[in-house]
Amino acid sequence: MLSMVVAPWGRDPVVLRNADVPHDAASMMKVAVLAALCRSGVDLDAQIPVVNEFRSVAGGSYGNSPAWDSDPLPWERVGGCASVRWLAGRMVTHSSNLATNLCLAQVGHEAVARVWRRAGATAGGSPRGIEDYAGRDAGVHNRVSARDLVRLLESLEPEVLALLEHNAHRVDIAAGLPPGTPLAGKNGWFPGMRHSAAVIRPADAAPYVLAVCYTGRLANGHAADDPAARLLARVSAGVWRHRHALTGRGA
């Protein structure tokens, strides 16, 4: 299943393909956690304990696995402390699962749900933490659609969106753009799925939002060497070629 939405910034979408089909959110929910954290009033410079035990929505506790985490640095601080700001950064720049659950614990699930509601999302949001398998087995799923991702990015404050400019994983949407093209976005991957959404700011055309969600056998779950990432890059390149037509304006 391939879902796609293309929208000029601040305007109605001009391309819709399976736009409202729900997909497992994977790491895309980290954007909503970031927004909730930045809106919460939490002291981002506060030092908090770096632990690997979190409360499951199904009761009991769970932890993250280093083997499924794309960022080793937060694991080096387990048993010590780190600032909320640093953890939030690792959550969106290197897609740290451990940092995500630590940030989520600071704001709670309801604050994240409010982010999705404010954006107008309809697919279900992110009611459980990363790797809360007991919650998943109890029927609590993180879901997202391509349209939800566009709505989410458009709902972000400029300072929150700016944090997404530093995403280090640039093998899908970013890979389909000319080198150096400014963009702010997030991607997510897991065996069987690859998603990416970004605000793209061409120098010679109006900015636009592209969100692509893919669920299928092409996605091998690898951060970089993923056939599904190459598929998303081709989609991104195709949209880029038509960037001047998105708003009906020439170059």
TrEMBL record:
Its name, as the record gives it, is: Class A beta-lactamase-related serine hydrolase
Q: Which residues form a coiled coil?
A: none
Which controlled-vocabulary keywords does the entry list? Hydrolase
Q: Which Pfam families match?
A: Beta-lactamase2
**Molecular functions (GO terms):** beta-lactamase activity
Q: Which InterPro entries match?
A: Beta-lactam/transpept-like (IPR012338), Beta-lactam_cat (IPR045155), Beta-lactam_class-A (IPR000871)
One BP annotation, GO = response to antibiotic
User: Which ranges carry the Beta-lactamase class A catalytic domain?
Assistant: 14-213
SUPFAM superfamilies recorded for this chain? beta-lactamase/transpeptidase-like
